[in-house]
Amino acid sequence: MKKSLITTVILTVLIVVYAFTPSGRQSSPATVSVVSDVPLFIFSEPVADYEIVGKALSVGNILKLSIDEESTIEQKAEDVVALAISRKEKGKVPEFDAIILDLENEKAHAIKFKGEVSLKATIKECKGVPVYLFSTPDDEYEVVAELPADISVRAQRNGMLYDKIKSMVTRTLKKEEAGEVKHFDAIIIDPKDLSETLIKFK
User: Fold this and answer.
1) pLDDT tens digits for 2-45?
2) R_g over Cα of the chain
3) How far apart are CA 36 and CA 55, in angstroms?
4) What's the DSSP call for residue 56?
5) 3-class DSSP state for residue 128?
């Protein structure tokens, strides 16, 4: 009985510890969006076991998408899926279940789940802040603030999505430090216009 109680306490502590980021911000597992019938993992990692079966995009595809300043992120996501499906149809990549976009390293992985297809994901951080892009937190939360996209001129000119998001997060953290916005746990980014919703988990 005593051993069982100790085990329960240890598990509870572990759950509490892993629910928070190193910066003290709470995080939540998420459900990713499905774009043109394909689950898309951006700033996130599938919870279910999977294997990488090939490159969803060629280097040329990635370069073309990165310099496209007219399309929204939402439109680019649809282009990513369309290009990946085209590569599959041409035999350049095997059958796949989902796509993982590694924005920081500019890679797109076509993946196959070892079991059933799952939309559940763990969220990655940018500068210590969990970022939800093309995903929705599973846990309940309250909105702290809603902000328009605030991107530095340098990041805007660079054109890379990762640099833009990093710039946005940096500026939002400075607003928090200055007391312009209240403390928040995570940021939900709207792929239509890159506006931010700052949230705090309940």
Assistant:
1) 444 443 444 344 344 444 445 578 889 999 999 999 999 999 99
2) 19
3) 18
4) S
5) coil
CA distances to 93, 111, 120, 170 from 74, rounded to whole Å, are 23, 21, 20, 23
- How far lies 30's CA from each of 5, 14, 33, 121, in Å? 30, 19, 10, 5
Pairwise CA distance, residues 88 & 91, whole Å: 5
pLDDT in tens, 66-100: 777 778 889 999 999 999 999 999 999 999 999 99
pLDDT at 157: 65
Q: Are 202 and 44 in contact (CB under 8 A)?
A: no
CA 158 to centroid of chain Cα atoms: 20
pLDDT at residue 59, rounded to an integer: 85
- pTM for the predicted model, two decimal places: 0.84
Task: Indicate the SS3 state at residue 37.
Answer: coil
Rounded Cα–Cα distance for residues 54 and 200 (Å) = 37
Strand partners, 141: 201
For the record, the structure tokens of 165 come out as 């998001």
Distance CA 31, CA 35 (A): 13
